[in-house]
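New to this. Comment on this protein:
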Amino acid sequence: MGAVGLGCMPMSWAYSASQQRGDRALRAVHAALDAGVQLLDTADMYGPFTNELLVGRALKGRRSDAFVSTKCGLLVGDQHIVANGRPGYVRRACDASLRRLQTEVIDLYQLHRADPEVPVEETWGAMAELVSAGKVRALGLCAVGARASRRPGARMYDETIRQLERVQQVFPVSAVQAELSVWSPDALESLLPWCSARGVGLLAAMPLGNGYLTGTLTPGQGFEPEDLRARHPRFTAEMMAANQPVVVGLRRIAERHGASTAQVALAWVLRQGPHVVPVPGTKRERWAVENAGAAGLTLTAQDLAEIARLPAARGSWD
């Protein structure tokens, strides 16, 4: 695919609320589209619902410029999130997303999480019906990669691959969304090879490490209470300081190219294969345009070797 997408989640959910302004977010989406970004990624749970509403407003008069991806399958309650994969719910969720996005069709409809109470084939079958109905063009699955649930000797995405093998028997998977970045490369072990062998796209979530790989965060800076990084083990002052060598290495390469640290991190993701699309999130025009520019940065063999030698990130996502 060779391009950078735009993750819209930070514009209205999970990050610093004081910086979430609708007018700024609209400008960021428009700037990204103007810079050549096509993929816009959102979900009904972001907000909940407000993120899809924002994307819908941003696409007024510009629907043909965008490839719209949204998700279903998770419900946000007070202090908890639960999965819902019942076919009836999936149908209602799709109709609601179409209304919020102000569009007649969703380009990529992703299952955010499988419901442990519903066979994933039933959920996927309901999603396939949406394709037949012309409401959705393609289906995707968000990866489950929690280390805490891994059996001894199991690989990071074994459970996701098992789900993929099951749903492929019902309807083709067009894309898988999973975390992939310089400091979290687990998807390269088994998930990306599975996708590449089948012509399935990989949407690389959090390719900038929730902002850490941009080099703009300072160890110990603190985060607003509702910011997901305020409770994340990789964003304690100790861990942020310990992982600075990763940022320093990326910055050194960036300086050679006259690029930003973030662009190097995104260019590395793009080099992982033609089916890989990094989907960095942002709230501001400046970063949206800068991120899009990573598609024009070609890393050399020396650059890639230097990145391969960077120390593994410390601290667990899970």
